Amino acid sequence: MQSTPIERVCGRACVVRGDDIDTDRIIPARYLRCVTFDGIGEHAFEDDRRLAKGDHPFDEERFDGAGILVVGRNFGCGSSREHAPQSLMRRGFRAFVGGSFAEIFQGNCVALGLPCVTLADADLAALMDSVELDPTQEVVVDLASRRVTSRAGSAHADMPEGSRRQLLEGSWNATAVLLEAGDAIEATAARIPYVHGFAA
Amino acid sequence: MSERTLLDKVWDAHAVRELPSGQTQLFIGLHLIHEVTSPQAFSELHEQGLPVRFPARTFATVDHIVPTDSQRRPLKDPLAEEMMVALERSCREHGIRLFDATSGRQGIVHVIGPELGLTQPGMTIACGDSHTSTHGALGAVAFGIGTSQVRDVLATQCLAVGRPRVRRIEVSGALAAGVYAKDVILSIIRRLGVKGGLGYAYEYAGAVIETMGIEERMTVCNMSIEGGARVGYVNPDETTVDYLRGREFAPQGAALTRARSFWRGMASDADAVYDDRVELDGSTLAPAVTWGINPGQSVAVDESIPRPEQAPEAERAGLAEALAHMDLRPGEPIAGTPIDVAFIGSCTNGRISDLREAAIVASKGRVAPGVRALVVPGSRAVALQAEAEGLTDVFRAAGFDWREPGCSMCLAMNPDKLVGRELCASSSNRNFKGRQGSPTGRTLLMSPAMVAAAALRGAVADVREIL
Ligand code: SF4
Questions:
Q1: Which domains does chain B have, with CATH numbers?
Q2: Ligand 1 neighbourhood includes B224 CB (under 6 angstroms)
Q3: What number is the average pLDDT over the span A161-178?
Q4: What is the helix (H) or strand (E) element at residue B189, kind and residue range?
Q5: Whole-prediction pTM
Q6: Mean pLDDT for chain B?
Q7: How many domains does chain A have?
Q8: Looking at beta carbons, which residues of chain A come within 8 Å of B22?
Q9: CB A36 to CB B130 under 8 A?
Q10: Is ipTM strictly over 0.85?
């Protein structure tokens, strides 16, 4: 059950500006009433898009087919719902570049094989401007060299080292990795007093 | 050994191994699941042919989608019914205990865990819900997780997690009358910001926290995630032990004696080393109200709504966006802002102590004309206790609607929702755009007593004037 190593994501990009974009905005709670993630991609940013009356980047034709989402700071804050990265993944996004990411969101992304990398403020601003000016350009998120390259130049990109290695090594499907511990799991459990009800 | 925090001790006791990624494989002592974030995890287990490794360490309940008018089956919403059926089937197949409406123990997952004595000090706890930090009130290290991690825990009883740094937040002094645990945490988030806790576990301490009951500590820990910290906890003390004594799943007799020394021993050492420390004087705190679209955007009830031009340059756009959504005028006092809806409930403030505080206020008047006011107990046990104490009658007599337990208007997954641009005084934890079910709806977070005060006045009011 080894997962595919992810060294690099290339493609066109889409920019959604704004800080503190929370998971309720990414996927409104009413679309959590489901037992599968099928079809959830259609509802990404649905309320924001409706309020913007077609003026949301997700409704702009020039961003169609983008595989990299460029966002601001604290993206994905709020709920732990994996429906948020799932909805973006099912819309075709395979990497996120931003100012910063909420911790649970970032972790959920890694579990799906989606890198979230952060850029310094000036680099992020330049990337956003550049992509908005020319959405047809190719943006490269390179985990191996820790760089994001676009027509705005090549910038240093950060990512928590553990997550970066999970993606690079193809060990981001944590279930498989955790199962490798085998009996060590039971052995640990046996040492924890409450697991056996504080038996004498 | 000394110099260790509770987080260090819990971490070391539960570490199965270090992973090549640098993360820790951590054994999870208690796994709580609910209907929303588990079905896809069970499907994946099924596809991969994996069993549940420790079924006795997972407990399930239903809270997010359950209607609060009637829990009669089949539920009127076919999607909700489908989710219920899926959870029931998965629990049956895998031998997981489910607390459904007929069990007498149903409620919001973060309310019933402690209430049943499942949550205990020194434990690692995981749940597919970001407010899992609530359980830290009893001295547990509790993580909110996504669906892929729910699958990890079901299959291995473990999580791959990075060890957080620890920030000790000391709240000294004593709270004035009319100032509650909710005001403490809203003030902390206002000061440290909604991303201030990124990468940290928050250890809450100081005289204010230590004199709090467990339920108040839960309110504080609950909103750790709103400050960006995934984990929040309070060191276990005698208050914790007293709280657990006699609860259904808590140890009893000689086992309790042994448990007590384990629990107390897990508390941070007096000389523990922290990555950061913050101090706050609790005596200076006033009732807090949010005016914006994230929980860090709050003011004291006697303050005015901030003016973007007075904020640091980098924050101005965010402030302007929040003010535009909220349709509030900068420079105006927040008190007196008319409300349409008053909601008392949620895993932040839907426990018996919250209802008691709110009922004191509710007993002093009637819900203002035109205000839709509802009280939603956090669990069946809370509902029964409130009825036994006569609180239900107090609320009803004042014109509040009394409901069945569930998440209700905290999020928009059940029939309780805001309509259009309604403005809601809410005891819940999130004021995000659209959180309460209407994309244009507006939420002001505050303590349950403050919500009750707002309900009576029909506008944001200072509860200290009513008490
Ligand atoms: S009450 Fe609200 S925050 Fe708490 S578990 Fe339910 S939906 Fe989540």
A1: 12-161 (3.30.499.10), 165-284 (3.40.1060.10), 290-466 (3.30.499.10)
A2: no
A3: 93
A4: helix B181-192
A5: 0.95
A6: 96
A7: 1
A8: 161-162, 165
A9: no
A10: yes
